[in-house]
Amino acid sequence: MGRKHAAHIRPNIKHRRCHRTYTRRAPTYATAFNGWHVTLGEQYAADISPPPGGRCLDLACGTGLVTFPLAKAVGQDGLVVGVDVTPAMLDVARKREREEGWGRVEFVEGDIADLSEVEPVQDVVRESGFDVISCCSALVLLADPAAAIKHWADMLKKGGKLITDVPTETHTLQYLFSWELRRAMGLQNEFDRSWVENIHSLEKLCADAGLIVNKSWKTASQGGEGEEYRLEDGEEVFEQNVKKYSDFMDLEKLDETRQKFLEMWRRECQRSDGVFKDGHWLYMTIAKKP
């Protein structure tokens, strides 16, 4: 088991909310949403293609769905450090059986926005820096993503690469349930994607951090292309999805929540000629340290 360095984590409200949400999600995180997190993790490792024997840092590593594909890619001479703020997610990751020939993996509890006191990370930085830093499905959880990317860029070696993603600006069912509906109900949100205007929004953060953008692209919808719905489907859509997205919600006021959703649903359908197309698209960027 890797060393733990959690003393520097500030117990702020956002951390506590993330702890609650991801503690609940930890046992089923790999299988949720038809397992698309697993597919995304494998895509991450394939897209970034870390060098054999390389040093990788997987931020917001969760249950290791990017960490382990990276460990396979770097081979037995490599190292992957996974950092996450939620102990329950790390517990699941540490219990996973490692395969022969994989690189060494070390999981550490820590705040990915401030890694200055996370010793396994700083050990690599002092040695030479990381070949690869990945941050999957977490950038919009951070209060200051621009500052975080600058912090991470400092830990890359020359020629090292960062790979990360953000949801597109497209309104999806996940967005409606986990952001707009929470806001309409007066609940605090765990993430903020309001700064994502287009594919260039993430590129700009990387460029401002002194990185050179190698590649950006919009993914296919994770978990399939989804379905099309119409205005009259609102009640059915709510009933089918309210439990699916319950991790993001407080359902004590179910009737009021339903009413708020239906008002929102009417606005969304009116914006798109009466049709709502669901999916889960991402903007991905790979950027290199010059």
Automatic annotation (TrEMBL):
**Keywords on this record?**
Methyltransferase, Transferase
Gene3D superfamilies documented for this protein: Vaccinia Virus protein VP39 (3.40.50.150)
What GO biological process terms are annotated to this protein in UniProt? Answer: methylation
Keyword Transferase attached: yes
Segments forming domain Methyltransferase: 53-168
Please give one Pfam family short name: Methyltransf_31
Q: Does the keyword Methyltransferase apply?
A: yes
Output the Gene Ontology terms for molecular function.
methyltransferase activity
PANTHER family for the chain: TRANS-ACONITATE 2-METHYLTRANSFERASE-RELATED
Q: What is this protein called?
A: Aklanonic acid methyltransferase DauC
Q: What is the protein's species of origin?
A: Cyphellophora attinorum
